[in-house]
Write a structure and sequence with these properties.
alpha+beta; 3 domains; two-stranded antiparallel ribbon; 371 residues; 7-stranded mixed beta sheet; 9 strands; DNA Binding (I), subunit A; 43% helix; 17 helices
Length: 371
């Protein structure tokens, strides 16, 4: 049977009836018949300003955007779009937060209360297969807050694995944030950045090119302990090798999954020696990409450091001094056929100064670099 869409008009009073938000029952409203936070939905992300704007709209009698529910076929519903607005309304009516310093339960004017409780909301209820509903979910404008790629993956592969993974990675002050968020992992847990990071890391270990492969394989796992344990191992290894509290600015957001897989068995890495080199590199004016320092320390690839390059004015003066002759092959080239090269390389103390510059033809420069 093709998907059907049916309009439904309800009041804020009906929406907030039986509202609960806890670990056991999840987030429910509409007399317990509405699942406000299905497995694929995001955590609550509205700030105070956005939340208050919803309540202002209700008090003003202005229309809120249409909300969308999916009919589960058993007399219950789940929110497809409108979670943030729904939670804002339910939390205000049930006394979770005040509006203009006044809690709803303390409003004594019956007309003021009636204005909120009798405010009418327009809902479109869709009935169809899971695939049809999820496809619709992806294409709806989510109240000005676009879903992240990981939120969409959670929608497609929702199940026991995603539910448990969100417990570790997707709550404010969750376990993943407590051990790695302050120093090493970028982004926000509730926007799924931590979960996405952990999945990327374990996919590198397993050789998967796409996060979706891992999520599909583990979709029906009863827990996400394997994923969290691997994430934990990586964070603990980084902390054992780097002064994370001191160097957070340069360590946060690095591809620690890749670096862990390559170097966690290297017994020669010493935290004290690494910190000494880190401090030297931070003071080196030749190093322009300071966030590349941890990569360089482990991989020994100077490209990560973004070393200073010679300016066009220096290149032109050196080219003129050489009369366009490459000092290695002794042939003449146009300036756009030559590259500026450090006579004494950075690794041996050479600086990006005119006296340490030579213009080499591209072939000679590549050959020299390969040695």
């Amino acid at each position: 049977m093709a998907m059907t869409i049916t309009p439904l008009e309800i009041t804020c009073r009906e929406l907030a009836e039986g509202y609960v938000d806890n670990e056991e029952e999840g987030v429910r409203g509409y007399g317990g018949k509405l699942d406000i936070r299905p497995p694929y939905q995001r955590e609550f992300i509205y700030g105070e300003k956005e939340r208050d704007a919803v309540i202002t709209t209700v008090y003003s009698g202005y229309p809120l955007n249409v909300m969308y529910w999916a009919d589960r076929g058993d007399g219950t519903y789940e929110i497809i779009d409108g979670q943030q607005r729904t939670i804002s309304i339910c939390q205000y009516i049930t006394g979770v937060f005040p509006y203009f310093f006044k809690f709803f339960e303390n409003i004594t004017d019956p007309e003021e209360r009636k204005k909120v409780l009798d405010y009418k909301l327009t809902v479109y209820v869709c009935s169809g297969t899971d695939t049809e509903k999820l496809k619709w979910f992806e294409t709806i404008n989510i109240a000005g807050k676009e879903l992240t790629k990981q939120e969409l993956r959670n929608a497609v592969y929702y199940g026991s694995f995603v539910t448990d993974a969100k417990r570790y990675f997707s709550k404010n002050n969750c376990a993943a944030y407590k051990i790695g968020g302050k120093y090493l992992v970028s982004g926000s847990p509730i926007r799924q950045d931590y979960l996405e990071t952990a999945l990327k890391w374990i996919c590198q270990k397993e050789g998967y090119k796409d996060i979706r492969i891992y999520m599909n394989k583990h979709q029906k796992d009863t827990d996400a302990l394997e994923l969290y344990n691997y994430y934990h191992q990586i964070i603990m290894w980084v902390m054992s090798k780097f002064d994370v509290a001191k160097r957070t600015k340069y360590l946060k957001g690095a591809d620690w999954g890749m670096l862990y897989e390559r170097f966690h068995n290297d017994k020669s890495l010493n935290k004290t020696e690494i910190e000494k080199e880190f401090a030297v590199l931070l003071k080196d004016s030749e190093v322009e990409n300071k966030k590349g320092i941890p990569y360089y320390i482990l991989l020994r690839d100077e490209r990560y450091l973004g070393l200073r390059t010679f300016g066009d004015d220096v290149r032109e003066r050196v080219y003129d001094k050489q009369d366009g002759i490459c000092p290695i092959c002794h042939e003449h080239f146009d300036i756009n056929e030559m590259e500026a090269d450090h006579i004494i390389p950075w690794s041996k103390g050479g600086k990006t100064e005119e006296d340490n510059c030579q213009m080499l033809c591209m072939k000679c420069n590549r050959t020299k670099s390969d040695k």
